[in-house]
Every structure is written in structure tokens, then in C-alpha cells.
Amino acid sequence: MHESIMEQLWQTSHLQGGNLAYVEQLFETYLTDPNAIPEEWRSYFDKLPGVEGNTRDIAHSTIRAQFEHISRNQRSYSGAGVPASVTTDADRKQIRVLQMINAFRFRGHQEARLDPLGVWQRPPVEDLDPAFHELSDADRDLEFQTGSLNFGSERMKLGDIIDNLRKTYCSSIGAEYMHVVDTRIKRWFQQRMEPVRSKPAYEAKTRKHLLERLTAAEGLEKYLGSRYPGVKRFGLEGGESLIPCLDELIQRAGSCGAKEIVLGMAHRGRLNVLVNTLGKNPKDLFDEFEGKKLQDSGSGDVKYHQGFSSNVMTEGGEVHLALAFNPSHLEIVSPVVVGSVRARQTRRSDNDGSSVVPIIMHGDAAFAGQGVVMETFQMSQTRGFGVGGTIHLVINNQVGFTTSRQEDARSTEYCTDVAKMVQAPILHVNADDPEAVLFVTQMAMDYRNEFKRDVVIDLVCYRRRGHNEADEPSATQPVMYEQVRKLKSTRHLYASQLVKEGVITDEESKQMETEYRDALDKGDHVVKSLVKQPNKDLYVDWSPYLGHEWTAKCKTSVSLKNVQRLGKKMTYVPEGFQVQRQVSKIVEDRNKMTAGALSLNWGYGEMMAYASLLDEGHPIRLTGQDVGRGTFSHRHAVLHNQKNGDTWTSLANLSEDQPLFEIYDSLLSEEAVMAFEYGYATTAPKSLIVWEAQFGDFANGAQVVIDQFLTSGEHKWGRLCGLTLLLPHGYEGQGPEHSSARLERFLQMCAEHNIQVCVPTTPSQVFHMLRRQVKRPLRKPLVAITPKSLLRHKEATSDLDDLTSGTFQTILPEKEPSDPKKVTRLILCSGKVYYDLLEKKKADSRDDVVIVRIEQLYPFPGDDLDELLAPYTKLKHTVWCQEEPMNQGAWYSSQHHMRAALHRLNPKLYLAYAGRDPSAAPAAGYMSTHVEQQKKLVNDAFEI
């Protein structure tokens, strides 16, 4: 819209001579009575960005000067006519009028006609009664100053003020915006709603398009209901206004310059959105209903979990739409969508969120009930996770499964009240008033574009069917469904209104229905704006990562010259930057490591992996609750100036043309942040995306993400993801909550090469592991069980040569293993316990024992283990040793792999277990108990 109107203005010389005065007059009229100007001009003026409060800035300076002058004059109404002192009864009444106006702005929504069913029982709001403000019927004909009201007149009769306030704030729209502390935002909503009384005059073309979208929404549900009766589809009946709402959001976003829109939603209405918004071919949907297999591999998923992507044409050009796949954990898709949006914005260098827009559709019960909604809102304005605002669209059925009583469903007045935590405006609207829905939709998108913050549309509708089409809702909601049975559909009500007003004829209305049904019968696409030959530049290219085996090779070593060059840059500190004393020692030690004067520790190996990947053109994003420093003070990727608190990140300053390095200490969230990073990783295949847990077991808080997305997303949806999880793990006597990353849970979910589970034990191993994650032409989630005490262990070191040669070793022998001819005992292990075992072996001079580390537990490297074990032909005893209790750790999930390898070596070998006894808790809470258990399991490994 912006470009097309500006082209009209300049290319057709509309602003030459007397035409400029015409445009000025249009704008002045718009400021006082928007309904009095053509809809196209009103829409254009609505979308103008604000400058210094209330002014509107048009891109060309001549018009800007004129418009700002007009707007400054208009702004002078604010507070006009309010006397400095109150001395008369008239003055007191005037103040009461202003207080009443404020009450309507604050609480008008509580008396708005929002419920299509009319079953809401809401007590009257005393603040909205003129009598509360000591104003009587006798005062209705008296004139009062209107203060900051945007009703187009500085003085109005009290009766007119009250009537217009009720039209604006108590009709089909209930706007909550007065909780926002920013005065500019409050004025913005007042200027949008009050001049048109929340009911703008739409042209016949717009109203016909609304009806056409409602016809499509209702038509699909009727068609599916008759063709597949009783089949579960989570239909949109009762909420059909969602389709015109989405249509306007997409078209308006596109007209404002958006190039991509990422959508998320749960089940209800999903099939309708797929067909009527994203342009999925109805024939493909019908094939799914008929049970046809539509993908060559994997398990697939049910219809109402499926994602989709397409391109549509808008007034501002072609826009790519992407609907995220979503499991039945309804709200977990919200941070996934936002993460995907952030990745797309990063790819486009879209720093303010203008080019990529997130739209998330929610159910009312889930929005109020699921904590990840709060976590997602809390991320919205942070540095590492902001996306310039999200449009939240609540499909408010007024019931969650069978829970509808407010005292059971939530503790707040509205299901949307959680959004107030970030001062998001909330626009409640009656879904049976399509023009009101259109108006709040336009306001929501314009608000997001103007202020770059979240906004909520609460689409108050109902569920004509039960929770699904096989459900009988009257069994639990008899009163509600008595009303539902009586109620005509939204489409029927609106069509009747348009016929009555002469906008269309009854024949035209019926023709719309017939044409839509015919298109479905033919299996035609029903989205007129669908781009049949889409611009593929709008897509993310995953083709280089398809069809590779997990054993695909890649070079992960780095030349000594590059290691030394990057090592110097990695430890560079700007002149005058005062580093904290202990941190300064770490920086000095890293310089010695680069020079070969000191063995490499874990922090160096990890940091060098990042530096070398950046040097080779791979962006990196690292988030978690303490990632800048590292929970255990090993990383210090972000240095803090002790003089003024400034920060320095050397990895972001390796060279002028390096790719982006992002590192953010996240909010104290696991579920939303991990889901965000999953969404990001599914959209950024060339990048290394890392989420680190503060302690490994904290990943428990994100178990839904791990179960529903990370470990099964590829199998269900064909969705590739290279997200890396760093999960600190190790038994150091710190109790049950700070020991275990619950390795067993990840291993239990391993199948069909879905993820990688690695337990690196040396700096060079973490170096090669992280580099392999990006350099290998494969994108699988990596679960890295990382150390705590090993970060500084004297034996857990590497040399520069280990970085400049070799690769990640799935099976790792001792540095100086015993002579195979003397070895009769094999101890297999993984992780930190290796160093405890090695210490005992050296202390006892046991040259009859060899200790082998399995550094990659899944996919299990059977061939590599066979190769390493081949020389040990004298074995008599083989033991698996782990720190974790027997029912945890790797024992149950991996023993069959190890036994198979031993059987291939010698069928008579038996694999014994050395470790803690089965336990309900991950670890002991008493240090003395821990030490006793640790000593026993190490001894058992050598004796059992």
C-alpha cells in the first residue's frame, strides 16, 4: 500500500499545484473523521509511522511539513478547556465528565458485547454509569468540553458523549490498552478508535471480500462434514472469522513490506487455514482423510499437526508463508515460531522485524493455562530473542475440552490477561461481527509495525461441534450448546446483513457458495492470491543436507598457522579494557596454549572450535542462562570491563567480514528458550546453534521440546535440525539435582539415527565434535554430555597437534594403553569416570587392564569398537563402568551394542556391570555417601 500510493502521488502528479491542498485536506479530515474519506486513503494514513507522539510522517519532506503542522494544531485539544481551579458546579461536572471518559477507556471492554452466544454473565461496571460520576439524565443536553476525546468536536452534549463512548468501547470491540504505560501508545489507540467509533465505513468491495472469505471458511467445513462425517478434524465452525482475519493480517503485512510470515497454531481450524489461507490443494487434504500415505519415509503425523509453506501475492509483493508443524502440546509451537522468525530476520539483516512477521494462533484455554506462553512473552523484548513484536490471535471458544467455568479454567477475568505482563494491548472482538474483526485486525498489524511490540487479538467465538467431531458437547455444556443450536452461522448473519443493506443480492450470496463447492469438487486451489510459480529465493535451501549417511566424513582439523592466528585474535583485549583478575589469568593461559607452552584445556578447545568455524564462514548462536561466562567459569567468551561494565566479545571481532556470532545469557527458562533455538536451527542450516543448560538436568524443564520436536521431528515431519545441546553432567557429590543430565532419557529416545549423543572427555574431542556438527553434510540434533570438574582436570588436556590433525573419535583409547598381549580385563566406560578409573589403574600398576571410552553412545559406533578391540585376544573379563545408578545412565540402552561387539570378538565374553545400585534419585545428597559409592564402583570395575 505504501509504495503504490506514493507512486500514485508522485508519478501522476497528484501533489502538484492545487492537488497538494487536496491531500492536506484529506489528512485533516482523516484526523477528525476517518469515515469521511475514501477507504484506500484511510488505510494509507492508518499505516503511516508515528513521529514524536501523534504526528504522521510521510516519506516526502514537503508533505511531512504540511501534515506535521496540521497534526500539531490537532494535538492542541489535549486537555483543552479543563480549568486550573474548580470553583463552580459546572466546573465540577466538567471534571466528572472527563473522569467518565477515562473510565470508558479503562473499563468499557467489560460491558462490550463480545460473546456471540450471549451466555456471559458479567456484572455491570459502576464506573460506566453516569450516576457514579454524579451526572444525571437532566445533564444529557448540557454541553461539555471533550478534553482529549477524538470525536471531532471540542464541545458536545453529554448524551452524545456517552452514546459515542458506548459505540467506541462497549460494542463489538472491547479494547484493553490503558494498562500500557507509554502515553504514545494510549493516544495511538484513541486516535484509531474514537474518530470512527470503532466502526469504520468499509466500501462494498471490502465487504464482499469479507463475505467471500467467510464463505470459504464455512464451505470447507460443510464439505468435509458431509464427505467425511464423524471424522476428527477439529473444525472451525463457530470461529470462521479467523479466515478473513488471517487474510487481512497477511495482506496488510505484505503491503507494509513484509517478505515472510511464519504462522503457528494448534488444531482447531488448522485444516481450514491450510486450504483457505496457505493454498494447500484440497485434493491432497482429501487424500489424507482417506488414509493415503503421503510421504516415503518416517511415521508421518495426523492431519491437524501438519505444517505447510507457500507464497501469496500482496499489494506490496510476493510473501512467503510458513505454517509450523505442531504436536498436541499446544502452546509449545509459540517459541518455535518466534525462533524461526529470528533466524529469518538474521538471514535478511532485518534488525527491526519489518521483513519477517510472526503470527501465532492460540486456543483460549491453552493461552491461559500453559506456562510456555508466559515464557514466550517474557522473551519478546529481550536482546537475544526479540523479533519486533508478535501478533497473537486467540481463537476463544470459551471452553477448553470440557472445562468452561471460569473459576475452573483460570483465575483471571480474561484468558488473555497473561499478555499484560509485557503491556501488550489486547483487542477483544465478537467474531460474529466480521467488520469489527477486520478493524481490530488492521489495528493490530499497524500497531505491531509502528511500535514493534506484541499485540493480542481475542477472537471471541464458539465451538459449534464438540472438542472434536466425534464428541457430544451437550453432555458437559448443556446451556452453552442450547444456544449454539439456535445460532445462525457467522457467514449467514453477515450475508443477511449485506443483502438487507443492498450490498449484494441473495442470488450473489448463493453463487459464492456454489462456486466454492465446485472448486472443492474439482480439487482446485481455492486461494486466489496463491503464487503458482513461487520465488524460491524466499525459501531456505536444505538440499545440500539431504540423503547423507551419519557416517559421512568431513575435515575438522585446522592448520597450525590458523590456530595460532585465531588464538591471538581470540585472546585480544582492547587497550584500556580492565579485565577481572581471575579472568585475566585465563586469558594469559590461553595465550600460552596458543604458543604451545601449556596444554590445552576444555575452554580453549571449545572457543577455538567457534573461532575456526567463524573463520570458515559459519554463523554461530550460543544461548543459555550463563553462556557468556559459562556456569563453571570455563568459557569467558564475553569479558566485562571492571571500570565501567562494558563488554568485549573477541569472537564477534575476529575480522570485519566474519559471519554473525551471537551469544546471549538467556532468561531463566528452559522450555521456551530451547524451543526458540529449535525453531532457529530448523531455519538456519549453515549455522552452529547451541543451547547450554546451566546444569544438565535442567533440560528436564524442556522435555516437551526434546520429546516432540528434537528427537522425533524428522521422523514425523521430515524436518531437519542441527541444534546442539550442551548438558553439563558428572558426579561430584553435589546432590541429585546437579549431577545427571538424564542421559538415559535421551538414549531411550534414540532410534533410526534420529539424534547424536556424545560424551567427549578431552578438549580436542569437543573441538572436533562441534566442528563436525557443521562441517559434515548432515543435520541431526547433537546431545553433548559435557563435563564440570573435567574443565580443569590435569589429565583432561590436549595438545595443539590434536587440533591440527585427526577428527572426532567415537571410541577413544588411553593415551598409553597396556600391551594387548598382557591385557585380560577390559573396562568400557563413558565420560568423567574414565579419569577415576585411570587414576586407580596407575596407582595399582594394572598393566593387565585396558580402559576404553565410548565417546559417541548413539549412533553406536560398532565398527569403530570392533577395530579398537581386535588386538585384545586375551580378554577374560569385560566390564561396563558408569557413575550413574544402574537404572540410569547408558547401561540399559547401550549394553546390547557392547555385548554384540564383544560377541564378535569372543562369544564367551560376558559383560558385567560396575556402578551405583538402582536408585529413584539421580545421585546421593551427602558427600560421604557419594565418596563411598564412587570408590566402590571404581574398585568393582577392577575386581568384579
Description:
It comes from Marinobacter daqiaonensis. Keywords: Glycolysis, Oxidoreductase, Thiamine pyrophosphate. Its cofactor is thiamine diphosphate. This is 2-oxoglutarate dehydrogenase E1 component. One of its GO terms (biological process) is tricarboxylic acid cycle. This protein is α/β, with parallel strands linked by helices. The chain has five domains: 74 residues, no CATH class; 97 residues, no CATH class; 333 residues, Thiamin diphosphate (ThDP)-binding fold, Pyr/PP domains (Rossmann fold, 3-Layer(aba) Sandwich); 245 residues, Rossmann fold (3-Layer(aba) Sandwich); 133 residues, Multifunctional 2-oxoglutarate metabolism enzyme, C-terminal domain (Rossmann fold, 3-Layer(aba) Sandwich). It contains 32 helices and 26 strands. The strands form six sheets. An eight-stranded mixed β-sheet has the order 5-11-12-10-9-6-8-7, with helices on both faces. Strand 1 and strand 2 form a beta hairpin. Helix 20 packs antiparallel against helix 21, helix 23 packs parallel to helix 24 and helix 29 crosses helix 32. The longest helix has 24 residues. The N terminus is likely disordered.
Would you summarize the structure shown here?
It comes from Marinobacter daqiaonensis. With 944 residues, this protein is α/β, with parallel strands linked by helices.
**Strand runs, count:** 26
Fourth-level CATH superfamily of the largest domain = Thiamin diphosphate (ThDP)-binding fold, Pyr/PP domains
Shape: elongated
Arithmetic mean pLDDT: 90
Low-confidence stretches: 1-18, 51-84
Q: How far do the termini sit from each other?
A: 78 Å
Sheet with the most strands?
8 strands, mixed
* Spatial extent as radius of gyration: 33 Å
CATH architecture annotation name of the largest domain: 3-Layer(aba) Sandwich
Beta-strand residue fraction: 5-15%
In the CATH hierarchy, the third-tier topology of the largest domain is known as: Rossmann fold
- Name the strands of the widest sheet in spatial order: 5-11-12-10-9-6-8-7
Q: Count helical runs.
A: 32
CATH class of the largest domain: Alpha Beta
* Global structural class: alpha/beta
**Approximate helicity band:** 25-40%
Number of separate structural domains: 5
